[in-house]
Design brief:
With 249 residues, the protein is α/β, with parallel strands linked by helices. It is 36% helix and 25% strand. The strands form 2 sheets. A 7-stranded mixed β-sheet has the order 4-5-3-2-1-11-12. A 5-stranded mixed β-sheet has the order 6-7-8-10-9. A hairpin with a 5-residue loop joins strand 11 and strand 12. Helix 1 packs parallel to helix 3. It is globular, with a radius of gyration of 17 Å.
Length: 249
């Protein structure tokens, strides 16, 4: 088992058909930490609203695993995202679920004293912030791509080929244009820079990354629908992106 100071995961989308809950449960079973940050979109509330909830036993197992980690001493923080925004009205009451704290954003302080702003990131996404209906349409289109992708890879598997993500391939080819228009990474890093943070940790766009933007460290922990990634902090303050498919997680 690998031990980390902190683990950050987001965009699990429990309750959706694309959620890789078994892989996440296996990752959490094989990796421990002092701090576990759930950086938004852990539960897919949009699917509840659309009556398209696909809750499996593996999804419940992830919840149980997280609760067990909290019970055994891991500090667990739940940062609300746009798909689990049904929790946001409760934030005024400083809510907690068992030993799990719920926040809209947080400040994480590394072992060397560096300060990181932790937020899901949807409020910095122009598509979600300025035109929610576009984001809603995108969610349905994304589900459609995942469904096609699943059938496509079934055929690839029968032919002896490995997994290939159609939706990820399409996103990578429009990603630069979307970022140019809406400036997600630029918006969020400019915000934390003005407020004196050393970096930002977010999710939302399902693309894991560690890089320097606008003079601050930008870190995105990816997702558990396609890339199956987690952002981890080592005891010495170093950061790393873990790909569950490439590890014992």
């Amino acid at each position: 088992m690998s031990q980390y100071r902190s683990i950050f995961i987001s965009d699990v989308h429990l309750g959706s058909g694309g959620c890789k809950a078994e892989e996440l449960n296996n990752f959490l079973r094989n990796n421990s930490c002092k701090n576990l940050y759930l950086v938004g979109d852990i539960i897919d509330g949009w699917k509840m609203q659309q009556n398209k909830l696909r809750w499996k036993q593996s999804h419940s197992n992830v919840i149980r695993r997280i609760l067990t980690m909290a019970k055994e001493g891991t500090r667990v923080y739940y940062i609300v995202g746009n798909h689990d925004e049904f929790l946001r009205p409760l934030l005024r009451y400083n809510p907690s679920f068992g030993r799990i704290e719920i926040h809209n954003s947080m400040v994480h302080i590394g072992p060397t004293g560096l300060r990181y702003f932790v937020v899901h990131g949807d409020m910095f996404d122009g598509i979600t912030r300025l035109a929610p209906w576009i984001s809603f349409l995108g969610d349905r289109a994304y589900d459609f791509l995942l469904e096609i992708n699943s059938k496509f890879n079934y055929v690839r598997h029968k032919l002896g080929f490995g997994y290939w993500s159609l939706s990820k391939w399409l996103k990578e080819r429009v990603k630069k244009a979307v970022d140019f228009i809406w400036g997600f990474e630029g918006n969020i890093t400019e915000y934390v820079k003005k407020r004196g943070f050393d970096g930002v940790i977010c999710g939302h766009i399902h693309t894991a990354a560690i890089k320097n933007i606008n003079g601050v460290v930008y870190m995105n922990d990816g997702d558990w629908v396609e890339s199956l990634t987690a952002l981890v902090e080592h005891e010495n303050g170093d950061w790393e992106i873990i790909y569950a498919n490439d590890s014992n997680g």
